[in-house]
Amino acid sequence: MHSTIETAPSTEPEVAPDPSAPEVYHAPHYPYKGYDLTSYTQNSVAPRKSEIAGLRKPTFWLLIALFSVVALALGLGTGLGLGLKNSNVNNTGASTSESDNATLSPAAAATSSSTTSESTSTTSTSTGSTCAVSTAAAPTATGLQDSGCPNRNGNTISKTTLTYKISCNSDLTGSDLASLVVNSLEECLSMCDSLNWTQKRKDVGSVWNEKGVIGQTAGTCWCKGGDKIQVTSKPGIVVASPLPQS
Questions:
Q1: What's the rounded Cα separation, in Å, for the pair 167 and 206?
Q2: φ and ψ of 52, to 5 deg
């Protein structure tokens, strides 16, 4: 049996395909197969442990403790070594000093004791003014050398910058600049001449009490200076006075 209804042809416009338009690509769709993502995440990513400077905490603190022990050991070793070295040096110096003192002759020991007991105080002023130097004389002098007086009376001795005239049984006026017990006239003159040289003076002369007169110790040397110093008479004392320079 057939329908008797007739279909009228469509009068709507038809869309004709454009061969110049780009073709649209549709990506294929794959159905989800039910993978267990929770299990994958837990197994693939392990939790990181706490670290210090790229090292695990136990390893880091173990290294710190080890370095501290080594540093302490080095410090103790260095301190003990220096202490032992200083102790050895002190012991060696004490032994040498005791050995030297034991081998000193009686005369040398007396001279050393005499020299140690001397005390010197110096007061200096500007050039041209008086310079006062006082030195406490030692009780005795050892091995006094004869001055050669009276045979050397009038002789001269040349020193660093000045020439000195020897006067036997004499004394010298002027201010007392220095005093010391010495063993010879030459030692006394050298000490006084050094004052002329160091202080740029020309007036300092030496007075050596060779015989120990006027209550002084034999060998006491005095350096005297000042304006218009003069030689006077005094038995037992030898003077070396500076001669005027031409």
A1: 10
A2: -130, 120
Query: What is the 3-state composition of the chain as percent helix, strand, coil, each rounded to the nearest 5?
Result: 35, 20, 50
The residues, ordered by sequence, that sit 6+ positions from 111 with a Cβ below 8 Å of its Cβ are 142
Q: How far is CA 145 from CA 163, 185, 187, 211, in A?
A: 21, 8, 10, 11
The pair of structure tokens assigned to 192 is: 């006084």
| Residue the block writes with tokens 């320079």 | 245
State the sign of the Cα–Cα–Cα–Cα dihedral 227, 232, 236, 241.
positive
Instruction: Using the structure block, give the residue that is written with the tokens 């003014």.
Output: 129
Q: Is the pLDDT of residue 104 over 90?
A: no
Q: Read off the pLDDT of residues 67-78 as tens digits, 9 standing for 90 and up.
A: 888 888 888 888
- Residue 201 CB partners (closer than 8 Å, separation 6+): 131, 195, 225
Q: Is the pLDDT of residue 166 over 60?
A: yes
